[in-house]
Amino acid sequence: MTTRFAPMRRLFADLLVPGALGALVTLGFAPWNIYPATIAALIGVLALWRSVGPGRAAWRGFVFGAAHFGTGLYWVYVAVHDHAGAHVVLAGLATGALVVYLACFPALTGAIAGATNRFAPTLWALVVVPGAWCLAELLRGWAFTGFPWLSLGYVTIAAPLNGLAPLVGVHGLSLALMMAAGTLWLLYAGTLWARLVALVLIALLPLLVWSVPSPAHWTRPLHKTLQVAVLQGDIAPANQWRPALFAPTLRRYRDMTQRTDAALVVWPELAMPVSATRVDGDLAPLNAEATRRGQTVLAGLFWPTRDHRHLYNSVLALGADRGRYDKRHLVPFGEIVPGPSWLERLIGGDDGHAVAGASAQPLIHAQGTALGVSIGFEDVFGDEVRRDLPAAQLLVNITNDGWFAGTTALAQHLEIARMRALESGRPLVRAANAGISAMIGFDGRLLHVAPAGQRARLLGALVPRAGATPYVAYGNRPLWWASAAVVLLALLGSGALAWQTRRQRRRDDRRRTLRERI
């Protein structure tokens, strides 16, 4: 009877359960923000990894990751098919390939977890697996230019652990969340000693949360207020790139700008999706009007390179304060094809279009306030946003999330922006073409929000801040070193234990053979 049902149990444990747990993890992210669901799913995946070797644990991690990224990033298909116009098969293949690639990182964590399950439960659940998860997540944010979307730490944005963000960043929060799941797993599956350790940690949790300094501890407000206006033009993606509609679009943003007296006016990414050389005649009067009114206008457009062969995705500051920022981190397979140049030519990415801006660029200023500007996808990389810190006193992100209208991508991207504000201890201004535009406090709280899919203008007074959080000072470097060291030592220790076990088994076999001969 047991043998007959073995295939069914294996299907259940290797496919259905990890798939369900992967989908459950997604509920912790925006727009649902049910972080206990994420913790419950992590407890389940720890149980799945503890009972098997590295091969099956890797497979379970892969299924878990595929379900998680499949449910969390389904909107990639919507963008590619509904808005970019790709055939349903091509859109499905592109989305599936991304999901399969991203699922390899939970699979890596599973392989390490399975290879080290000889360790005591306490060490395994509280140190080894969290370290492996953190390392895999850091690798995901680095490999092939990186894709750290849906990093586990984002689910804590509204949870008690979010006070750790200024200290360790989103990946440190991922580590903490995995340790919390490990603590709860020990109550269920650990030895008596492990359960006692877990109970002590749970009892100390309120003290830990209370002892973490508030976000206000790390940075200080400057004695000035900046009046800010964020414009959300709500231009449909299909219309944004139609040459006949460039002039009406520019007119819409210009009219919205003239109806506000704010010192800083922020337009979305590529509000003018043309080269600056093509709209010189329109920019000159806009610049003159903004100068006369004492305003600084941040306009998204393309800026030509010196040889005019390529274009930067840029923010141009017009009016009282002049300047320009060129996007540094381009979207893989959207603006750039990672890998050798022949791959770019094969896919068709070498179209003379977007190129990356210089790594070091002067900051744009508005009324004496230094701005740390990022464009679109760039704000997903906390370690890159901190390049402009602590010099920048206010963060600005302009984006065009219209490609993902009606999907959870809008709420997820806003959640990411909130984390950047919390990590840096800076207020953040977010201008999105079709939403969700927002003004975010230095502590990650939403101050003003424009609903998605509507033309809107946000007005608010923000207080710039100075100083550096520990995360701004050190970034992800401590996490890289610590997680890599944990994984390396764990694998070496596991290998030593396996060698010792085999050696002892050979000794026992020899003794048994000698006894049989005697």
Task: Work out the helicity level.
Answer: 40-55%
Give the CATH H-level superfamily of the largest domain: Carbon-nitrogen hydrolase
Major pleated sheet: 8 strands, mixed
The CATH topology of the largest domain is Nitrilase/N-carbamoyl-D-aminoacid amidohydrolase
Subunit arrangement of the protein: single chain
Rounded to the nearest angstrom, the distance between the terminal CA atoms is 42 Å
Task: Kindly estimate the percentage of residues that lie in beta strands according to DSSP.
Answer: 5-15%
Low-confidence stretches: 346-352
How many individual helices? Answer: 16
Classification by helices and strands: alpha/beta
CATH class of the largest domain: Alpha Beta
Number of domains: 2
Count of extended strands? 16
Give the overall pLDDT as a whole number: 91
Transmembrane segments: 32-49, 61-80, 86-111, 123-144, 164-187, 192-212, 479-499
Pathway: Protein modification; lipoprotein biosynthesis (N-acyl transfer)
EC number: 2.3.1.269
Protein name: Apolipoprotein N-acyltransferase
